[in-house]
Design brief:
globular, single chain, 39% helix, ten-stranded mixed β-sheet, 28 strands, alpha+beta
């Protein structure tokens, strides 16, 4: 195998088996052998004489040659006792307390096993509705989303993947405005991507600037009206501000519902590409298109359709076998999944393929290539599924499906285009059908040196054409595009376009081209520059509607908090320090802050959090009486203080502390109403949250006094400078269009389908 160092790092951190102490006990070859053997064993279920060894070798070769890769849970869990192999699940949420908390419990089991969950909150009664059994009033969907969010925070996905959810609410739900605004603070509901479920009727009302009805989900009664255009504009405004909510076209999902007699599709998986019925799951896999090319007699690349056909057929066989050997977290999921046997074969490396074919992503030829390619893959996948049905039978719900009376098919759906995330890092491929995010980026290595990492094929072309140099690669990394690089020939610039070279229109047109020939949906992020307007976002949403996409996610560069922020315009002076040796700054002589008494299982805990103008700088935690574990509290406080003065993001620390449980506190919580925390660390996290808000108010007051003007006058709300020095010392928190840094390795993060991923180490987070 030809694996990059990044791929090896990702495999070692997140995929290879470890012992109880966290030591790696599996080789990379061993992992692929484990997966291939486990998935091939399903052949015996259908034919006792099947040559499982030969099938295993086919599957192993397909993965080790990096032509195909299954979704992460399959790589992590196949051949192990856990054995949960699917990435995508949808759970129903009924309108009763029992049903809601059953869904919370079931989601926790799925997250623990490595899957992501989608929910529709549309069946929940609106906020303020009467609860007949108690005489109280309902708290509404958004309130319960916070319950699900907290549960997700408490569960790490098998120790290797973070919990991820999709929350969807129908556009006609009475609480829709609150839902649209629920992530206006992007530190709220952090484990959810959210999408508004739009209907064709609503979109028609938007175009006509008409009112539309809000509907009580309990009885279908009318609960008021809203202006469709105003609601649409609110969705656009929120997406422009921080990328959420996305939109899902519910009627289109159900138009392609293969088994409408079984149920209605209400939700998708966390990245939006896999619509599912309640309790359904789907296992995904992706073909690496960069490997599906060959050189012709003139030394030019062409698509190798014979190899692609062979790979699609083997991949369909592989994914159908996954359904058979999968150990599902719930019996109802096992039953529903086997009823329809949905699989989701997709692609990655599309941008890499276009580079080799010398076709610009943002061109008519690029769009035509996408259509022809996906049409071939979809047709071949369906043919392979029909071939499997000859020996294995059609999916059990076949006679209830839209296919009834026709040629039997093994799988109700065959194709899905996922963002691919870490599996594309393993394969050294561009993600899904996205353009390449960057051709070159700089990583900090030992001794604070900078090492340019360059797309392998771009480097090959640069060396062949004679313009390669490490200095130029650093320059390209800083620019983020070839657009203004005079040393690169124009014909190379035309081909090697990256995400921000491509207009939003071409992003949507490319998504639409793939969607036409995809059974399920397409995960795609439309990248906007920071200067994009709300009108730009609205136009893309309307174009997605007109071009028959099933949903869309946008991200405007620099629109989220927690990004790399600079004082002034010198971006080159601000380098990530995550990989460098860090010395904590000295404790300031003067601080301000609060001390709060918190009741825990061991008594009263007094938590002090202090800050200065630079930021929160220290934490003290003292027990009010003997007992408990004062040494551990002191150690925790010292480590937090050191991390804070070393520049670590306080929100990251809060995320790590909140939700930690202590048996002593939990035992006494049931009888002591004054205990409102889970442990000492949880208490510290809660007080830190309060001080973050307190300091923000403090900063705002100081900003009002000091900042009348700044170097970014077109964006700063304070425009009248008193003196020239005000321009220099203004440090208001402006978005400057740089992407967030990975909390694990310090590299830049990329936005994919509403999530972020680090392509250097594989860290990812949705929500």
């Amino acid at each position: 195998m030809k694996l990059s160092q990044n791929a090896i790092t990702v495999l070692e951190r997140r995929y290879l088996s470890k012992d109880a102490e966290g030591n790696i006990i599996e080789t990379i070859d061993g992992m692929f052998n484990r997966v291939a053997d486990a998935i091939a064993s399903a052949d015996k279920v259908f034919d006792e004489t099947a040559d499982v060894k030969a099938t295993s070798e086919e599957f192993r070769e397909m993965m080790t040659s990096l032509k195909f890769m299954p979704n992460s849970p399959t790589l992590m869990n196949a051949g192990k006792p856990l054995g949960q192999l699917s990435a995508c699940f949808v759970l129903p949420i009924g309108d009763s307390m029992g049903e809601i908390f059953d869904a919370v419990k079931n989601a926790a089991l799925i997250h623990q096993s490595g899957g992501g969950t989608g929910f529709s909150f549309s069946r929940l009664r609106p906020e303020g509705s009467t609860v007949r059994s108690t005489g109280g009033v309902a708290s509404g969907p958004v309130s319960f989303m916070k319950v699900f969010n907290s549960a997700t925070e408490a569960v790490k996905q098998g120790g290797t993947r973070r919990g991820a959810n999709m929350g969807i609410l129908r556009i006609d739900h009475p609480d829709i405005i609150k839902f649209i605004k629920c992530k206006s603070d992007d530190k709220e509901i952090t484990n959810f991507n959210i999408s508004v479920g739009l209907t064709e009727a609503f979109m028609s009302a938007v175009e006509k600037n008409e009112e539309y009805d809000l509907v009580d989900p309990r009885d279908g009664s009318k609960k008021g009206t809203l202006n469709a255009k105003e609601v649409f504009d609110l969705i656009v405004d929120m997406a422009w501000k921080n990328g959420e909510p996305g939109i899902i076209f519910l009627d289109r999902l159900n138009k392609d519902n293969v088994v409408p007699s079984i149920g209605e599709i209400e939700a998708t998986n966390p990245c939006g590409e896999q619509p599912l019925l309640p309790y359904e799951s789907c296992n995904l896999g992706s073909i690496n298109l960069a490997k599906m090319v060959a050189l012709d007699e003139n030394g030019e690349y062409r698509i190798d359709y014979d190899l692609l056909s062979d790979t699609v057929k083997k991949a369909v066989h592989f994914l159908d076998n996954v359904i058979e050997v999968n150990k599902y977290p719930l019996e109802e999921i096992s039953r529903q999944t086997r009823l329809t046997r949905k699989i989701g074969l997709g692609v990655m490396g599309f941008a890499d393929m276009l580079f080799r074919l010398k076709i610009p992503y943002n061109s008519e030829q690029g769009i035509e290539t996408a259509s022809k390619l996906m049409s071939f893959i979809n047709d071949t996948a369906h043919a392979a599924s029909r071939e499997l049905a000859k020996t294995r039978g059609a999916f059990p719900a076949f006679e209830q499906s839209i296919y009834a009376g026709g040629e039997p098919i093994r799988n109700a759906t065959c194709t899905t285009i996922a963002p691919t995330g870490t599996i594309s890092i393993i394969c050294g491929a561009s993600s899904g059908v996205e353009p390449l995010f960057a051709l070159s980026f700089v990583r900090n290595v030992m001794d604070n040196d900078e090492l340019p990492q360059v797309d392998a094929y771009f480097e090959e072309v640069a060396r062949r054409e004679g313009f390669y140099s490490p200095e130029l690669m650093r320059k390209i990394a800083k620019e983020g595009t070839l657009h203004n690089i005079s040393e690169v020939p124009q014909h190379v610039k035309d081909i090697f376009v990256t995400a921000h070279d491509i207009s939003p229109k071409y992003h949507i047109r490319m998504q639409s081209a793939f969607q036409r020939f995809t059974d399920n949906a397409v995960s795609k992020t439309v990248n906007f520059p920071n200067a994009a307007t709300r009108e730009d976002v609205a136009n893309v949403y309307m174009l997605a509607y007109k071009l028959r996409c099933k949903g869309v996610t946008i991200y405007r560069d620099g629109s989220r908090d927690g990004q790399v922020l600079y004082v002034g315009d010198k971006k080159e002076d601000a380098k990530p320090h995550a990989m460098a040796k860090i010395t904590p700054r000295p404790r300031p002589e003067i601080t301000r802050g609060i001390t709060e008494k918190v009741v825990i299982g061991c008594g009263n805990l007094y938590v002090t959090v202090n800050y200065d103008d630079t930021g929160i700088c220290e934490v003290f935690a003292n027990l009010g009486r003997a007992g408990g574990c004062p040494s551990q509290s002191e150690a925790t406080s010292r480590l937090i203080s050191t991390a804070l003065r070393s520049g670590m993001d306080v929100e990251s620390l809060i995320e790590q502390l909140r939700g930690i449980r202590c048996h002593s506190t939990l035992r006494q919580k049931a009888t002591n109403p004054n205990i409102k925390v889970l442990s000492c660390p949880d208490a510290i996290g809660r007080v830190l949250e309060k001080v973050v808000k307190l300091k923000a108010l403090d900063d705002e007051m100081r900003h009002e006094y000091e900042c009348g003007h700044c170097a970014k006058e077109d964006k700063c709300e304070k425009r009248e400078a008193r003196t020239e020095s005000d321009v220099e010392r203004c440090d208001c928190m402006l978005d400057v269009g740089e992407d967030a840094l990975c909390p694990e390795c310090g590299s830049k993060m990329e936005h994919e389908g509403g999530c972020v991923i680090c392509r250097a180490c594989g860290y990812s987070k949705c929500g």
